[in-house]
Write a structure and sequence with these properties.
Distance between the termini: 55 Å
Strand order of the largest sheet: 1-2-3-4-5-6-7-8
CATH topology: Porin
Strand content: over 45%
Shape: globular
Number of strands: 8
Number of helices: 1
Largest sheet: 8 strands, antiparallel, barrel
Radius of gyration: 21 Å
Structural class: mainly beta
Order of helices and strands: HEEEEEEEE
Length: 170
């Protein structure tokens, strides 16, 4: 008897609920200023003096320009350790992000430039180079988005970044 009651209750709950109306979340970021915070995991490909993977935090600002956004950002990350052996990385970035919509998701692509400065036990290194990033945007609320992204930074060697970005529309 308990099983039948449970099944009837479960069916009633299932039939009583409807799918959320996602059209309310589908507001375009086109033409709007954006403010974001990214969390990335950088995987260096044997950069001199910097061989450990690194978690970095990246505040970003987006300015509407044409069909996309001009993106400015800075990243900082540090390894766990004591001060003389502490690995640190600073990255300043600029890019142009273009969103593209498909039937199933909204993606983005951002080519740009980066300047990195990192400290390790082996010394201090400064490098500038191109970057290319891509990802998928997930609308969470009317003016709030989350994106999963990857990016490739071409410094002395290739550095891959994997992470997420949380963006507010202003």
């Amino acid at each position: 008897m308990k099983r039948i009651t449970f099944l009837i209750s479960a069916c009633w709950c299932f039939l009583g609920t409807t799918a959320p109306d996602l059209s309310q979340l589908q507001t375009s970021e086109r033409g709007r200023f954006l403010l974001g915070l990214g969390i990335q995991f950088l995987v260096p490909d044997e950069l001199p003096g910097f061989t450990n993977s690194q978690m970095v935090f990246c505040p970003r600002f987006y300015f509407p320009v044409g069909p996309g956004h001009f993106q400015l950002g800075a990243s900082y990350g540090t390894s766990t350790g004591k001060f003389p052996e502490l690995d640190q990385i600073f990255i300043a970035e600029t890019a142009y992000r273009v969103d593209f919509e498909t039937r199933f998701f909204t993606g983005f692509l951002f080519p740009g430039l980066v300047y990195s400065r990192y400290f390790s036990a082996n010394g201090e290194y400064k490098k500038a180079g191109p970057q290319l990033g891509w990802g998928i945007i997930f609308p969470l609320a009317r003016s709030f988005r989350m994106s999963a992204e990857m990016r490739a930074l071409a410094l002395e060697k290739l550095v891959m970044g994997f992470g997420a970005n949380f963006t507010f529309s202003l």
